[in-house]
Amino acid sequence: MARVIAIANQKGGVGKTTTAVNLAACLAAADLKTLLLDLDPQANATSGLGVRVDESAPTVYESLVDGVDLADTLQPTELDSLVVAPASYELVGAELELVNDEHRSFHLRNALEATRDRFDYIVLDCPPSLGILTVNALSVADSVIVPIQCEYLALEGLSRVLQTLDRVRDALNPALELEGILLTMVDPRMNLTRQVVADVREHFAGKVFEAEIPRNVRLGEAPSFGKPIILYDLRSAGARAYLTLMREVVRNGKKG
Amino acid sequence: MARVIAIANQKGGVGKTTTAVNLAACLAAADLKTLLLDLDPQANATSGLGVRVDESAPTVYESLVDGVDLADTLQPTELDSLVVAPASYELVGAELELVNDEHRSFHLRNALEATRDRFDYIVLDCPPSLGILTVNALSVADSVIVPIQCEYLALEGLSRVLQTLDRVRDALNPALELEGILLTMVDPRMNLTRQVVADVREHFAGKVFEAEIPRNVRLGEAPSFGKPIILYDLRSAGARAYLTLMREVVRNGKKG
Ligand SMILES: Nc1ncnc2c1ncn2[C@@H]1O[C@H](COP(=O)(O)OP(=O)(O)OP(=O)(O)O)[C@@H](O)[C@H]1O
Ligand SMILES: Nc1ncnc2c1ncn2[C@@H]1O[C@H](COP(=O)(O)OP(=O)(O)OP(=O)(O)O)[C@@H](O)[C@H]1O
Ligand SMILES: [Mg+2]
Ligand SMILES: [Mg+2]
Questions:
Q1: CA of A131, closest CA in chain B: separation in Å?
Q2: For a FRET experiment, which of A74, A252, B24, B184 has its CA 20 to 30 Å from that of B86?
Q3: Whole-angstrom Cα distance, residue B102 to residue B106?
């Protein structure tokens, strides 16, 4: 029975995709059958794992809007236990096409119904907005990871995301939990970073992952080779951090 | 007659707001009457200049959707020649509310009609998407600045933005020009950065600003004090870079 984890934060460039790709890859490397589902029209997670999709092949868009079986969209990766449901630019249209649909928040839940039990983990990469695509993710997820970059603007965005979690929990998905807040791109030399890290850990005690993702050049380079960090540079600080995060997520799952 | 410049790129966290805030502030510091109009529901530009808006005060949302006069939304800043038309979270609703409006791309153009001539420059900060809010900005802008962070994923996003420019130019705004591509968060120690900078300058020769914005901790700190970089730390590398950008933009304007 898959644990479905959404990676969400409407603020741009905070490490959602880097986290989705690398958490999924680390889970797969631990032999947990994992599906990475890309919900962002920019399809960064899809290309970050080197997945190329033919014009004619179905993607998450066709699954959400045309009801194509999600299983028909799945693409393999370099890791045996990791498959990808790819995004495409047409997803931009999904927000508008679904707007008048009274079941618009549940298209993803329906799409995942049939495939869910084939996996141990399903990781959902969300776009930088709290629109229909992200709400679809939050409506089907068991839990949410909120990556935040340790800078001033990140804190405002964090309260916004948590408000949205509460609303989705009340209206659409009572079982939705916060898996944790993940501090990303942590640069210990920056005063601002240390201040923000301290504030977040104090204000949200118990909700922040022990694991922190350091600012690490290798994490920026890996997607240009279409590889997760553990295949690109296993000894890097970035790889070690995402492996630590993976273990923390799996342990949390067992306490369940 | 104001020059209207949109700051756009659907990729998150590439420095749109930092560029909008600091270009606007530098123009104002040069005694050019400047309006910074915040089109992002996250309102980072608004808070980055220390502008607080009462619950009851009208914002860009009321101007776009309810037809409130834009002049009624304007808020002062610490710089005499800089005012802000603030965003608010309700703008999230604008995308959905305008979707069935056949003039949905022109609400901002209409809102700016009356106020345009009071300014020398109007700077529009766009959200990380190519949805209705960004299309409204591109429909009224004279030109667009596209900030890109020098990392692999940035290049894919860049072609996407330029495609959108072309489409808006053909369908909605024939006079729309590319003001320039702005390289941001440049860290000369990163190999990937140097490679991306070289590729962009070669591939888009003549369209890339001479000015480059370095990765500079002070630029990340300034918004937490609600100040543009020139008031926060005038001698920083970030301040010098945005002043250089401002001069380049003003020179381009004179060549017309
Ligand atoms: N820890 C890190 N160290 C260095 N670079 C990083 C790190 N995490 C992410 N990056 C880089 O920062 C950029 C933004 O990260 P990413 O794309 O994961 O953010 P995002 O939240 O998914 O962005 P968007 O909001 O556009 O979807 C990418 O170029 C990525 O490679
Ligand atoms: N040159 C720089 N050096 C250091 N930090 C920077 C620089 N430019 C921007 N930042 C910081 O990086 C983060 C992202 O920048 P910014 O908010 O301007 O991007 P954006 O494109 O507007 O993001 P969004 O897509 O969410 O609107 C902010 O915390 C900002 O303070
Ligand atoms: Mg992403
Ligand atoms: Mg912004």
A1: 8
A2: B184
A3: 9
H or E element at residue B183? strand B177-184
Mutate to test the interface with A, among B153, B156, B160, B221 (most CBs of A within 10 A): B153
Neighbour tally for A97: CB within 10 Å: 16
CB within 8 Å: B221 and A152: yes
A:B CB pairs within 8 Å:
90
CA distance linking residue B101 with residue B78, whole number of Å: 38
Q: Tabulate helix, strand, coil % of chain B (nearest 5).
A: 50, 15, 35
Nearest-atom number in ligand 2 for the CA of B220 is 31
Of the partner residues B11, B48, B191, the one whose CB lies closest to the CB of residue A12: B11
| Bridge pairing between strands B75-76 and B82-85 | antiparallel
Q: Which of A11, A220, A223 faces B42 most closely, judged by CB atoms? A: A11
- When pLDDT is cut at 50, 70 and 90, the band that residue A176 belongs to is very high
